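Supplementary Note 2. Why include the ligand at all?

Several targets in our set were suspected to adopt different conformations when bound, so apo predictions alone were not considered sufficient. For every target with a known small-molecule partner we therefore ran a joint prediction. The input for pyridoxal-5'-phosphate is given below.
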Amino acid sequence: MLMSTLAVTGGTPVRATPFPNWPIHDQREIDAVVEAITSSRWGGNYLEETGFKTDEFAARFAAYHDARHGIPAMNGTVTMEVALRAAGIGPGDEVIVPPISWIATASAPLSLDAVPVFADVDPQTGSLDPAAVEAAVTDRSRAVIPVHLGGRPVDLDGILEVARRHNLIVIEDAAHAHGSQWRGRGIGSWGDFGSFSFQITKVMTAGEGGMLTTNDTRYAELCAALVNCGRIPRGSSLTESPWGWNYRLPELQGALLLAQFSRIEELTALRADNAAHLDRCLRELDGPAQPLPPDPRITRQAYYYFSLRYEAERCGGLSRKRFIEAVQAEGIPLGVGNPVIYKNLLFRPTAATSAVVAGLVGRGLDLSKVHCPNAERIAEVTGMGLSQHVLLGSHADVEDVVAAIDKVTKHADQLAVSA
Ligand SMILES: Cc1ncc(COP(=O)(O)O)c(C=O)c1O
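The joint prediction is reproduced in token form.
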């Protein structure tokens, strides 16, 4: 079979070997969990005992991001809910969010009966656009949740400037961005809060888990109480308990995360090196899969995924769907992101679950009327990406990505252009 025959039409694929597996573990993770189990401290860091790995992890993770405090929690959804609650956001308050993100960015305000207001993204980067935030501000706006999409920091200078002028609380959704830096300083330390996820696909994981970061001691104390049934933290200046829930992170997870944290520097550098090589090769190729524009203010990037923009006119008008199918058949796990949040079936009212979302129509959130053209174009037409594990191998591995894209581009005539 000729190498020029596309694998999707029966040819030999560019690559037959899989990319590195995720998650990664070695003896460090095993020892950490065994030690946590044999210590008998499987949880309970709200009691008088000290020496918990979860607390050590929280302090080190926060410091690594240049934040003063770290508050561990069960996942990166409740972290945002807790941050909003600590900031006093409540029913009817508006929280400005981007439409390109996981649904949690918008469902966190909904859990407080606050209204997520979708503001459009930058057409090149897919990140929340400060000008769109400005345009979305009303006299009910109380907060904004910019997302560091795929690990690429959002324009924090622009977002913070708008937030300052309109007195908005800023919660950085950093679920993808462990270790990323903006102008030399850790993300999660720029806004009022940073919110991280350790769910299984994230660049460090315990299967599930979350962390809030903040530089504000009172917020930190409030958040620590809110995730711990309202208990006032030891040594805190709080005088009364807030109405809290049990969102505590168990010690086995904390111990596992401390082990994962020991490799963050090495893995972030490895992904960044492979991403830089892939970026260079794709720019040289100058084909239909274009990397995002560089931004010198991004001084370190955690690649949760490597984002690409599909330009169909550089591939004979081939649809993104068909292009991706053809590249996947060559052995490359190229994919698309989630639909825009307001069209995601998990977010839309159904007969069974309409109460919360449908109830918001009365407050001005009619999802059928929301339209963010830049976000929709990226989600439905141009956006593509490669997951972080593709960047955990060698330069030769990412050269296979480029070879597959090149092959599909050169032989696109073997595919039905309209499909
Ligand atoms: C951007 C973003 N924010 C928040 C979350 C929620 O995190 P978790 O799954 O830990 O609840 C995710 C999770 O995938 C996410 O991608």
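Residues 75-77, 101-102, 104-105, 147, 173, 175-176, 197, 199, 210 surround pyridoxal-5'-phosphate (CB under 6 Å). The chain has two domains: 27-261, 264-414. Comparable summaries for the other entries are listed in the accompanying table.
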